[in-house]
Amino acid sequence: RHPTAPPPPLLAAALTALLRSHAVNLLVNLPLRCLDSLLPARVPPGSAEYLGLNMDALQTLLVFLDTRLDRGQRLAEALNPVLLLLTTSARAHRETRKFLRMRVLPPLREVRTRPETGNSLRNKLVRLMTHVDTGLKHRAAELLFVLCKGSVPRLVKYTGYGNAAGLLAIRGLRDPRADGADSSDTDSDTEEFKDARADINPVTGRIEGSSLPPSMSEEQKQREAQKLFLDLERLARGRIIQPLSLSADGRLRPVEAMLRPLGEERESGSESD
């Protein structure tokens, strides 16, 4: 090949990823004031702009993060530096935090699926919050917490309490449900979220389906309960199942054995009459 010929596409992509990885490692180890270079004031045509600043570097970091989140192996080695860099930068610069939140945690519209289900950046980061690697899940949770401006109700709104419990326990923060805290952002909540907010399970972060159809009347529920009782009774008579209950001494005993004395008492009472 000619020495000036461009490398094959796959090799070029690999070299670009390697270069970005080294750049991230360098930025993580630089003093905090050096992170100002991620937000140049000059915004050329075609660049990503937010609040009058050039966001190309942050946009590139988000693409780099998204690509590495799809790795199946050595996730901690691949993700810890970029997660730390984004978290540190978001803490230091309000503009960075707002831009990253807009891209990672946009206003909620879909609340019928779990926060960890899907292929968005939010979904992937929430999945990391329960990763087996303690350091990795802490880094992911810390980034989301910073993007939520340290608001526990807001974090739970985007991740579900079940996913956020680990971070809250480490930081000694209270469950927002205990304080009746409101997780809404009046300036950013979508109409879809406002309409569904009362039905969202705060633990899972989604609307949970009811076990009974909402249109079922009380009479229909009673009929279903009677049908279930008869089915269980038939299974018990056929010795397929054996219903148990707690006796007076606190032990589990077959329901049939516990009901037998009551039947005998009734029979003796009827004979005496």
Task: Write structural notes for this entry.
With 273 residues, the chain is mainly alpha-helical. 54% of the residues lie in helices and 5% in strands. The protein is built from 11 helices and 6 strands. It has a two-stranded antiparallel ribbon with strand order 1-2. It has a two-stranded antiparallel ribbon with strand order 3-4. A two-stranded antiparallel ribbon has the order 5-6. A hairpin with a 2-residue loop joins strand 1 (49-50) and strand 2. The longest helix is centred in the first third of the chain and has 20 residues, at 9-28. It starts with 8 loop residues before the first helix and ends with a helix.
Entry keywords:
273 residues; mainly alpha; two-stranded antiparallel sheet; two-stranded antiparallel ribbon; 11 helices; 6 strands; 54% helix
